[in-house]
């Protein structure tokens, strides 16, 4: 099998690191991107290239993209937009506009910058992967910023798929459930059907290889959520409120 040229953002931890490990192990040329240079240094021996930049800083993204193109890596088979942030609005009555803007900027606005500089490097027959969240299936307490940002990612991916079809570039949207990562380690609520990053990455790789438009897992969780989404909004609100009152959050 011919090695693929793959760029992964957020490659130094969680799902991104697991994707890096598994793609590298199968012989692909992985360009690992992240903010933490020290963590990137540990990947150098196995990575095709490593680049340190903050996805919210357009000049840093532009510089990395120029270097990648100059290195002759402009023909990407796979662009995986994985980097993101998860923070919660703990006091909705005293809403933090600053936190909201920061999460939206990292999870959604930054994607526009990444697409501007890296999408032109995806070759005909290539693929773009957006890592969103199953949180967009149902509204959850404290998730105003995170959920809104990921709902925007969903629309962006689904719309972009239509426009990239004429360029023979596929788009895959991923809705992971709960996955053990440094971000979810901070959660103080129950996370049913929790997967490891390695399990999540394996499921993604299999689905991406099949060029699926939409991936969601684990299905025990996501299909249950999709069924609950058919409930009247008032009923779902009562159910989730009761869980909070029982301390199940």
TrEMBL record:
Any one GO MF annotation of this record: oxidoreductase activity
Keyword Oxidoreductase: yes
InterPro entries for this protein: NAD(P)-bd_dom_sf, Sc_DH/Rdtase_CS, SDR_fam
Assigned GO CC terms: membrane
Keyword Zinc-finger: no
Source organism of the structure: Colwellia ponticola
The organism's place on the tree of life at top rank: Bacteria
Protein name, UniProt field: SDR family NAD(P)-dependent oxidoreductase
Stored Pfam families: adh_short
Keyword list, A-Z: Oxidoreductase
Entry similarity comment: Belongs to the short-chain dehydrogenases/reductases (SDR) family.
SUPFAM superfamilies registered for this protein in UniProt: NAD(P)-binding Rossmann-fold domains (SSF51735)
């Amino acid at each position: 099998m011919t090695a693929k040229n793959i760029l992964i953002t957020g490659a130094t931890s969680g799902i991104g690191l697991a994707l890096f490990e598994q793609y590298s192990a199968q012989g692909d040329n992985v360009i690992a991107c992240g903010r933490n240079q020290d963590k990137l240094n540990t990947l150098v021996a196995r990575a095709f290239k490593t680049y340190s930049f903050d996805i919210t800083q357009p000049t840093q993204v532009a510089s990395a993209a120029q270097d990648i193109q100059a290195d002759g890596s402009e023909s990407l088979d796979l662009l995986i937009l994985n980097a993101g942030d998860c923070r919660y609005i703990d006091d909705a009555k005293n809403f933090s506009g600053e936190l909201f803007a920061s999460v939206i900027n990292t999870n959604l606005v930054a994607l526009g910058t990444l697409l501007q500089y890296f999408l032109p490097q995806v070759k005909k027959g290539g693929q773009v992967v957006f890592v969103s969240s199953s949180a967009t299936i149902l509204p959850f307490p404290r998730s105003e910023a995170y959920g809104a940002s990921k709902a925007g990612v969903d629309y962006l991916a689904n719309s972009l798929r239509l426009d990239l079809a004429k360029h023979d570039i596929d788009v895959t949207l991923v809705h992971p459930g709960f996955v053990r990562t440094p971000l979810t380690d901070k959660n103080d609520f129950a996370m049913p059907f929790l997967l490891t990053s390695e399990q999540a990455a394996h499921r993604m790789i299999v689905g991406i290889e099949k060029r699926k438009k939409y991936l969601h897992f684990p299905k025990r969780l996501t299909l249950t959520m999709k069924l609950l989404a058919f409930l009247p909004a008032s009923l779902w609100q009562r159910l989730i409120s009761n869980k909070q009152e029982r301390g199940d959050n």
